[in-house]
Design goal:
The chain is an alpha+beta fold. The chain has helices at 3-16, 45-51, 54-65, 84-89, 99-108, 118-155, 165-182, 189-209, 214-217, 219-246, 252-257, 263-293, 296-310, 324-337, 370-373, 394-402, 412-428; strands at residues 19-20, 68-73, 76-81, 162-164, 343-346, 351-353, 356-358, 365-368, 432-436, 444-446, 450-452, 457-462. Helix content is 55%, strand content 10%. It is globular and about 60 Å long.
Length: 464
């Protein structure tokens, strides 16, 4: 393996593996069951590549070695936690940084938040989250408008027309995120198309190119990625300068401009939000509508709740908390699709998982095989079945919250995605019914975000 690939994958594993501890030079991970290194230099890197993704690798690792299992990354043993029971024992997650933000910044070569003062990191996190929350509140009518435009388009289709969810919902996510994050400039479709071109080029590398070393194997691909990243950064810096002179206060970037962040930090935070916000929002919406298309019963229960809460009125932000069943549908979508199959947390004090001690170390990370945990049969009954009703149980909601998918520890990009998806489901389900195409088989590409491998098709009909 090339040195750059090893360096890049080190960041990925450190940030998205499971519980990392730099043990002494012993060839055993402190007695934890798992894999021996297949290569002295690369550890089990080639095994990860052969499995196709880190998630598939972790699935096989835990199936063979149990819920606490180890593998090697280079000369370092990595301990992966694959059940809720073990996660409950892993104490002191660091709440000053967000796992998805940390992963993206490291992969992009930005300041990841691993160093520096904790107080500064916490303040920056608060600015970031507050900016997203205020942007949603200030621009909720725009979110509703963009969703209604898409639903009206679907209503105009013939009953038997095949509708591509991935294409349409990625477009919705891109329009929503760019306009809310960067302002009026992205009402121009040409700007959104240009953004999407660069977004796709960057994400194709962030998603997998670093992990399998393909970026370094292809000079043209590396050049394409670097060009896209440079163009995206230039656009974000340009937008920030324009908005600063206009002194508007409606977009995400405006809130950042009111803070004490540097120009570079503002650009980085805009990059993270637009990249992560677009892909998480798009795929949450895609998977939610896909699963709805497989169950008329779920669609009818959702319709009943929506009519009780809204009647025939448009969706309103203040009533969204009343949509309990809609929340269950989205929670079950995240769980069944394994929307974000890996996560990272920084551990600052000594901890213990079963009989294994996790000592305090500066570079000690607590990271979780969420894709494994989300379909662990000890935690979820019939784990591969899409069943929103399971979230009526307090124990299920508690387990889900513990994994960081609800409550205060939900990443801000996912909270943003939940709001957009709620507006989409609330608008669509009261007017349309979805049906899955017969014979269509859904396969998942599990990277940093789980995405359908191929276009997902449904047919739509008006609800009578």
């Amino acid at each position: 393996m090339l040195d750059f690939a090893i360096f890049a994958v080190t960041f990925v594993i450190v940030l998205v593996g499971a519980v990392l501890y730099l043990y002494p030079s012993s060839r055993k991970a402190s007695g934890i069951p798992g894999l021996n290194p297949t290569d002295e230099k690369d550890g089990n890197l080639q095994d990860i590549v052969n499995r196709g993704s880190l998630h598939e690798f972790l699935m096989s690792l835990h199936q063979e070695h149990g819920s606490v299992a180890s593998f090697w990354f280079g000369g370092r043993p990595v301990v992966s936690l694959g059940s809720v029971n073990q996660l409950q024992q892993h104490i002191n997650p660091n709440h000053t940084t967000d796992s998805f933000e940390t992963m993206l910044k490291s992969l992009l070569g930005y300041q990841s938040g691993m160093g520096g003062w904790a107080t500064e990191a916490m303040m920056r996190k608060k600015v970031y989250e507050s900016a997203i929350n205020n942007t949603l509140e200030n621009n909720f009518p725009l979110v509703l408008q963009l969703v209604e435009e898409l639903v009206e388009k679907w209503k105009s289709f013939p009953v038997d027309q095949h509708t591509p969810l991935c294409a349409h919902l990625l477009g919705l996510a891109m329009k929503t995120v760019t306009q809310l994050a960067l302002g009026d400039r992205f009402k121009d479709d040409a700007e959104v198309i240009s953004f999407r071109k660069n977004h796709d080029a960057i994400w194709s590398v962030i998603g997998k190119g670093y992990l399998d070393g393909s970026l370094e194997k292809s000079t043209s691909r590396k050049g394409h990625y670097e060009k896209a990243l440079s163009e995206m950064e230039s656009v974000l810096l340009s937008v920030a300068k324009e908005r600063k002179t206009q002194r508007k206060q409606t977009a995400f970037v405006d809130a950042l401009l009111q803070s004490s962040l540097t120009e570079r930090q503002i650009m980085e935070d805009c990059m993270v939000f637009t990249l992560a916000g677009s892909v998480i929002t798009a795929n949450l919406c895609i998977w939610a509508l896909h699963f709805l298309s497989t169950s008329e019963e779920v669609q009818d229960k959702l319709y009943q709740e929506l009519t009780e809460v809204f009647g025939s009125a448009p969706v309103s932000l203040d009533k969204i908390p009343q949509l309990r069943y809609c929340q269950q549908v989205l929670n079950e979508t995240v769980r069944t699709a394994k929307l974000t199959p890996v996560a990272a947390r920084l551990q600052e004090v000594e901890g213990k998982v079963d009989q294994h001690v996790i000592p305090k170390e500066v570079s000690d990370f607590g990271d979780y095989a969420l894709g494994v945990v989300l379909q662990d049969s000890d935690t979820w009954s019939t784990p591969y079945r899409f069943d929103p009703d399971r979230f009526e149980e307090d124990s299920v909601r508690k387990s889900f919250s513990l994994l960081g998918f609800s409550g205060n520890q939900t990443c801000p990009e996912l909270r943003f995605a939940y709001t957009v998806a709620t507006v989409l489901l609330s608008t669509m389900a009261r007017q349309l019914k979805l049906q899955k195409l017969k014979g269509q088989v859904m396969e998942v590409r599990s990277e940093l975000v789980s995405t359908p491998k191929d276009e997902t098709w449904v047919t739509v009909s008006r609800r009578r």
